[in-house]
Amino acid sequence: MTTPINPLLLDFPDHFETERLLVRAPRPGDGPTVNEAIHESHAELRAWMPWAVEAQSIEDTESVMRRMAAAFIKREDLMLLLFRKADGVFVGSSGLHRIDWNVPRFEIGYWIRTSLSGNGYMTEAVNGITDFAFATLNAERVEIRCDANNLRSAAVARRAGYPQEACLHHDARGTDGALRDTLIFAKVRQAS
User: Fold this and answer.
1) Total domain count for the chain?
2) Which of 23, 138, 159, 179 has the least CB density, counted as fewest CB within 10 Å?
3) Domain with 61 in it
4) Quick one: which H or E segment has residue 59?
5) Average pLDDT score, the chain
């Protein structure tokens, strides 16, 4: 039997870089920047993200950033913000969610601002976050889940080399209230 992990005692960085991106935990003061991208991308986000059905105020987004900064420190959820290194522009959000430290298992979630979609930033971020999960957090399993109708999200998982494990039929309700199917993609640590 293994000893349960106390995630509060795990030391790891709150940021790292990929070729074009700075990937970091949220901080107080990030709300206005993130809110601007949410508003720009609202039409696309609200189709898939329950939190984006209603438009958020800057204060709402700042509150989320502060809660997620605290959750990162407490190791409950590891939200990560993506910034373009060349000019500091906010690209989107991702992170490691639904964490089970005793495996360790993580789920990567993501969204990208509409004006920067189609440039490979999210695939780059997912690859970097996957490497971070396996190399730094000692992950045994990393998943990506998305609505089966969210073709762009599924394409990111596939481009990042995630094999599809399953399709869960009528697994959840979409933002429109209709039943949806959920695709599950996963990578696992390779036995050495």
Assistant:
1) 1
2) 179
3) 14-140
4) helix 58-73
5) 95
